[in-house]
Automatic annotation (TrEMBL):
<feature type="binding site">
    <location>
        <begin position="82"/>
        <end position="83"/>
    </location>
    <ligand>
        <name>beta-D-galactose</name>
    </ligand>
</feature>
<dbReference type="GO" id="GO:0006006">
    <property type="term" value="P:glucose metabolic process"/>
</dbReference>
<dbReference type="GO" id="GO:0033499">
    <property type="term" value="P:galactose catabolic process via UDP-galactose, Leloir pathway"/>
</dbReference>
<dbReference type="InterPro" id="IPR013458">
    <property type="entry name" value="Ald_epimerase_bac"/>
</dbReference>
<keyword id="KW-0413">Isomerase</keyword>
<protein>
    <recommendedName>
        <fullName>Aldose 1-epimerase</fullName>
        <ecNumber>5.1.3.3</ecNumber>
    </recommendedName>
</protein>
<keyword id="KW-0119">Carbohydrate metabolism</keyword>
<dbReference type="InterPro" id="IPR015443">
    <property type="entry name" value="Aldose_1-epimerase"/>
</dbReference>
<dbReference type="InterPro" id="IPR018052">
    <property type="entry name" value="Ald1_epimerase_CS"/>
</dbReference>
<feature type="binding site">
    <location>
        <position position="255"/>
    </location>
    <ligand>
        <name>beta-D-galactose</name>
    </ligand>
</feature>
<dbReference type="Pfam" id="PF01263">
    <property type="entry name" value="Aldose_epim"/>
</dbReference>
<feature type="active site" description="Proton donor">
    <location>
        <position position="183"/>
    </location>
</feature>
<dbReference type="InterPro" id="IPR014718">
    <property type="entry name" value="GH-type_carb-bd"/>
</dbReference>
<comment type="pathway">
    <text>Carbohydrate metabolism; hexose metabolism.</text>
</comment>
<feature type="active site" description="Proton acceptor">
    <location>
        <position position="320"/>
    </location>
</feature>
<feature type="binding site">
    <location>
        <begin position="183"/>
        <end position="185"/>
    </location>
    <ligand>
        <name>beta-D-galactose</name>
    </ligand>
</feature>
<comment type="similarity">
    <text>Belongs to the aldose epimerase family.</text>
</comment>
């Protein structure tokens, strides 16, 4: 898969007239993961099941397809992942207006966000038989309307425990909200299996979720998941309570943030766990972020896939580790502040562990 991907992704030039640079990491278990410098994007994730290798990450095969898709497949998202209502927030009494790109709101950093940039490649480092690739990006003061110059980095490490560790770091010279995440979509039965993700079984270590309107903007306060379709404290299939209430119907499925239990982002507990429908593969997620956006691919129809066809709605699920949406406008929420000060360094980490059962 990796050699074929390297060739196909380099056939077309990217937005800046040069081909993408593709990198593949492998471990001792036969697992391989591929990335490119456009959007610091996670392109492929192949897990060795013993008798077969399974591609579990939704993706494309060519740069032309990548430029067509609007689903943020595997991309590094920033400056601010998820939504900021009306693209407006206040810091130290000063109103900031950033560019909007979805229903009058700012989604995933704006129309020309980190997802659409060519990141610099710092190189591949091998240490203790673990491989790491590091991407960096400089975002100037006023980029998409956000204050301050940001120097951001994202590193991907593949371990021999079948872990993909994504580490984010950023510094800034003016106070600004920063919320970096990866927008990977998974289907543990196989990204091109033609099966939807709704037969996957999920547990989420979160007792509260955030209701939102049809545009994904939070409405009201956090709600307890107990007694609702958003209760994943015990293992259940995504389809069990799918579209069971008004909150889901507004979003055409799950597209909501869950506030994780404090023990998760302190590093003492698994935040989420997903098991494939055939029971052969489990994904465990750990993160230092306070929340996860669960998205069941409600609008994936028409998105190009690697096989030259198109994905259908619910072809994959995303677990985006982040601050709650519109956090700059909700300092009252019980989570660390998303506003990074010049004297601070933004540092967060998310680990995806793939366990062959």
């Amino acid at each position: 898969m990796s050699n074929k991907l390297h060739q196909s992704m380099a056939q077309d030039i990217a937005f800046d007239g040069s081909p993408a640079k593709i990198f593949t990491l492998t471990n001792s278990n036969g697992m391989s993961v591929s990335f490119m410098d456009i959007g610091a994007t996670w392109l492929s994730c192949c897990v060795d099941l013993g008798d077969t290798t399974r591609e579990v990450l939704l993706g494309v095969a060519t740069m032309k397809q990548h430029q067509q898709q609007q689903a943020y497949l595997g991309a590094t998202v920033g400056r601010y992942a998820n939504r900021i209502e009306s693209g407006r927030f206040v810091i130290n009494g000063e109103i900031h207006q950033v560019l909007t790109n979805q229903a009058g709101n700012c989604l995933h950093g704006g129309p020309d966000s980190f997802t659409h940039r060519r990141w610099l490649v710092e190189g591949v480092v091998e240490e203790s038989r673990e491989q790491t690739i590091v991407f960096t990006l400089e975002s100037p003061d006023g980029d998409q309307g956000f204050p301050g110059k940001v120097n951001a980095s994202v590193s991907y490490t593949l371990t021999n425990k079948n872990e993909v560790i994504i580490a984010y770091s950023a510094t800034i010279d003016k106070a600004c909200p920063i919320n970096l995440t990866n927008h990977a979509y998974f289907n543990l039965l196989g990204a091109d299996s033609q099966s939807d993700c709704l037969d996957h079984s999920l547990t989420m270590n979160a007792s509260q979720y955030l209701p939102s309107d049809a545009s994904g903007i939070p409405v009201g306060e956090l709600k307890e998941v107990q007694g609702t379709s958003f209760d994943f404290m015990q293992l259940k299939k995504l389809k069990q309570d799918f579209m069971a209430d008004h909150d889901q119907q507004l979003a055409a499925g799950y597209d909501h943030s869950f506030l994780l239990e404090t023990e998760c982002h302190l590093g003492h507990a698994t935040a989420a766990s997903v098991t494939s429908p055939d029971g052969k593969l489990r994904l465990e997620l750990q993160t230092t972020k306070p929340a996860i956006q669960l998205y069941t691919g409600n609008y994936l129809a028409g998105c190009p896939n690697r096989e030259g066809g198109e994905y259908v709605n619910h072809a994959g699920f995303a677990l985006e580790t982040q601050f709650l949406p519109d956090s700059p406008n909700h300092p009252e929420w019980q989570q660390p502040s998303c506003i990074v000060q010049p004297e601070q360094t933004y540092k967060h980490q998310t680990t995806y562990r793939f366990l062959v059962v």
